[in-house]
Amino acid sequence: MSNQDIAITVDSVVLCNVENLFKVLLVKRKNDPFKGQWALPGGFMEDGEELEAAAKRELKEETGVEIKSMEQIKAFGRPGRDPRGRMISIAFLSRIFCEEELKPGDDAGDAQWFELDKLPDLAFDHQEIITAARGLL
Fold first, then answer.
1. Residue 99: inside a domain, yes or no?
2. What is the count of structural domains for the chain?
3. Percentage of residues in the chain with pLDDT exceeding 90?
4. Which tens digit of pLDDT belongs to each residue from 43-63?
């Protein structure tokens, strides 16, 4: 059996529905890789942390938004999806009915709501993650 160096991360797709218009919550990355680009809120799991708890923690740290329930979308682990090395991300979906007030923090330089059909270029494979989340709507 080979010795693998793999990290586990979590990403959150938070969608709000305002008057039948879906928006997604994105953060502007403060650090490399993809510094200055928009991405889903997320990050590395801590030792002993449950997957959903990690996603909720990262979401709150980066945006100030607290979510009660999340639905696991799927795992994303294509080699090369992250230039820092082999990363497996477990993505979660949350649906809310209003644009919560955002308080960017941690490694997010900014946080904003974007119309789902008018997204900026996204870091990593986050467009693929959002597409998978849309399939659950």
1. yes
2. 1
3. 82
4. 999 999 999 999 999 999 999
- pLDDT tens digits for range 99-114: 788 888 878 889 999 9
- Could you tell me the residue range of the domain that residue 42 belongs to? 7-134
In a domain? residue 2: no
10 Å Cβ neighbour count for 101? Answer: 9
Preceding amide of 33 cis, omega within 30: yes
DSSP string over 29-59: ESSSSSTT-EE-SEEEPPTT--HHHHHHHHH
- What does the block give as tokens for 75? 């795992």
Contact 129, 11 (CB under 8 A): yes
On the CB side of 119, CA atoms within 13 Å amount to 23
